[in-house]
Design a protein that fits this description.
mainly alpha; hpI Integrase, Chain A; 3 domains; three-stranded antiparallel β-sheet; two-stranded antiparallel sheet; 17 helices
Length: 464
C-alpha cells in the first residue's frame, strides 16, 4: 500500500537571514518581493518592531484577500469592500470620519479587540502608503486615506489654534522660532532671539517637577536631541566615556531618528546635568524600578555599595540581562518613560502653569541657534574655521542634509536678529519718550533757530 504524503500548508512569515536581512515569505515559502522592499523602507523610517508588526498585520489581511481571489494590489474600492467583510467577521465596521477611515466595534465581546483591529488597519494603511511611495501600488490613492478633490474650495477661513489666543486667520506653517507667553491676559508670540533665556524659562517652570522630567528638559536644552531620542536612553547608552571622563555621567549615546533602534548619536550635556542624572538614578528611579529588590540583594552579596550605576550595570551583566534593553527613564509604574507621556504629563501642564505655550522640539532649535551664535562669534575672522565648525555641528546633530538644514537656521536667525534690533530701537524710543527726551522746544528756542536760518540765507544770497 502506497504511503500518503500529508502536506501541511504554512503561514506567511518574516524570515531573518544570517546577515540580518529580513525576507517576507508567502505560505508556499516564496519570497514576497514587494512586501520585502516595503518592510526594509519602513524599518529605516520606523523601528524594527513596528515595521515587523505592520507587515504581520498586512500578511493576515492578504491571507483573507486570497480566500476570495482578490490580489493585494487591487483598486482602492475593492480593498475597502474586502476590509468591510474582514471586519464584519470580527463584529466591527469601517467608518469614514475626519478625512480618515476608522474601525469601530459592534460588540465589545468580539473575537478581536477594537484596539487590535485599529492597529491592524494602521499597519495596512502604512503598507499601502509605502507601496505608493515606492511605486509598487499602481493606484495613487491610498485605500484608507481620503484625498480631497480639486473641486473642493476653502470657503471658510482656518480658525486659529485653541492655544494661541488669537482671532486672526491661522497660518498652517509652524514657526519653530516662536513660542507664546501669557501677558496681561493675552497670549503674545515670542521669538527665540535669546535661546538661553528660553531655556531658563523652561527650567523655571520645571523647578519643582520630578527629577526625571528635570533631567529630560536639561538634556533637550543642553544636548539638542529629539524628545523621543532622549527618552530612549538606555543603561548601555549611558555607559560612555569621552576623553577619559567618568562613565555614567554627562555623555551618552541615544538612538537617532530614522536610523533604527541601536544607539548611534552621541549627546553631551553639562556636568551639573550629569550629576542630576546620577541623583535621579540612585533615588527616584530606584523607587519605581522592578529590579531594585534583586539588585539590592545582589549588592549585599557582593559586599559593595548599592545604588550606583556602575554596580547596576555589573548586576545586569551578572544576571544575563542586556543593559541595552533596560531604559534609564521610567514612569511611576516602572515602565519605559515615553515621549508622549512626557509631553502630556509634564511639559504641557507645567509650562501652562507658568503662562508659556511651546513645544519640546523648540529646545532643540534653541540649542542649535545658540551654538551657531557661539560659532560665529568665535570664528568671525576665519572663514575656514567657521566652515569646519558648522560642519562639526551638522555631524553632531546627525542631520541627513547638514548644508540645507544650516541654511534654514541662517534664515531664521536673520529674521530673529532683525526683530531683535527693531525691539531694541522701539524700547529705547519708549525710554527716551518716558524721560521727556523728545519734549517740544520752547518759543524762545524756536525764535533763535529762525533767526539763525534767516542769517544763513542772507549770507548765501550775498555770495551769489
Amino acid at each position: 500500500m502506497d504511503s500518503l504524503e500529508i502536506v501541511v500548508p504554512k503561514k506567511p512569515r518574516l524570515y531573518r537571514t544570517a546577515k540580518g536581512f529580513v525576507v517576507v515569505q508567502r505560505g508556499d515559502l516564496s519570497t514576497h518581493i514587494p512586501l520585502t522592499i516595503i518592510r526594509k523602507r519602513m524599518a529605516a523610517r520606523l523601528s524594527e518592531a513596528t515595521a515587523d508588526l505592520y507587515i504581520r498585520h498586512f500578511l493576515k489581511f492578504e491571507e483573507f484577500l486570497s480566500l476570495s481571489g482578490t490580489p493585494w494590489d487591487a483598486s482602492p474600492d475593492i480593498i475597502r469592500d474586502a476590509t468591510r467583510r474582514y471586519l464584519r467577521q470580527h463584529n466591527s465596521h469601517l467608518n469614514f470620519r475626519q478625512n480618515r477611515w476608522h474601525v469601530y466595534t459592534n460588540d465589545a465581546n468580539g473575537t478581536l479587540s477594537v484596539q487590535t483591529l485599529r492597529t491592524r488597519l494602521e499597519g495596512i494603511r502604512a503598507v499601502y502608503a509605502e507601496a505608493i511611495k515606492r511605486r509598487l501600488y499602481l493606484y495613487d490613492e491610498n485605500p484608507f486615506v481620503y484625498t480631497a478633490s480639486d473641486e473642493v474650495t476653502n470657503s471658510t477661513a482656518n480658525k486659529p489654534p485653541s492655544w494661541s489666543g488669537l482671532t486672526t486667520e491661522y497660518q498652517p506653517r509652524r514657526e519653530p522660532e516662536q513660542f507664546w507667553i501669557l501677558e496681561t491676559g493675552h497670549w503674545s508670540p515670542k521669538h527665540l532671539m535669546d535661546p538661553a533665556g528660553f531655556l531658563n524659562l523652561v527650567l523655571k517652570a520645571f523647578k519643582h517637577a520630578r527629577r526625571v522630567d528635570q533631567c529630560l528638559v536639561r538634556i533637550l536644552g543642553e544636548g539638542g536631541p529629539r524628545v523621543s531620542e532622549a527618552c530612549s536612553l538606555s543603561i548601555e547608552g549611558w555607559n560612555r566615556t569621552v576623553r577619559g571622563r567618568p562613565v555614567f555621567h554627562h555623555s551618552f549615546m541615544v538612538r537617532n531618528k530614522g536610523y533604527g533602534t541601536d544607539p548611534s548619536k552621541m549627546v553631551h550635556v553639562d556636568d551639573s546635568t550629569g550629576l542630576l542624572l546620577r541623583q535621579y538614578f540612585m533615588e527616584e528611579r530606584r523607587v519605581v524600578d522592578r529590579l531594585t529588590p534583586e539588585f539590592t540583594a545582589w549588592c549585599r552579596a557582593q559586599g559593595s555599595l548599592e545604588g550606583t550605576p556602575e554596580n547596576y550595570y555589573a548586576f545586569l551583566r551578572a544576571t544575563n540581562r542586556s543593559p541595552a534593553d533596560i531604559p534609564l527613564f521610567l514612569n511611576r509604574d516602572g515602565d519605559a518613560y515615553t515621549a508622549n507621556a512626557f509631553r502630556k504629563g509634564a511639559w504641557r501642564p507645567l509650562l501652562a502653569a507658568d503662562g508659556i505655550k511651546a513645544r519640546p522640539h523648540q529646545l532643540r532649535h534653541a540649542f542649535v541657534t545658540q551654538v551657531m551664535d557661539q560659532i560665529e562669534e568665535a570664528h568671525s575672522g576665519d572663514p575656514e574655521a567657521l566652515k569646519q565648525a558648522r560642519h562639526a555641528l551638522g555631524v553632531y546633530m546627525r542631520w541627513k542634509q547638514p548644508a540645507r538644514t544650516l541654511l534654514s537656521y541662517d534664515h531664521s536667525r536673520k529674521d530673529d536678529h532683525v526683530l531683535s534690533e527693531l525691539t531694541r530701537i522701539t524700547n529705547r524710543a519708549r525710554e527716551l519718550q518716558a524721560n521727556k527726551a523728545y519734549a517740544a522746544p520752547s518759543p524762545s528756542e524756536t525764535a533763535h533757530r529762525t533767526s539763525r536760518l534767516e542769517r544763513r540765507r542772507e549770507r548765501m544770497g550775498g555770495a551769489e
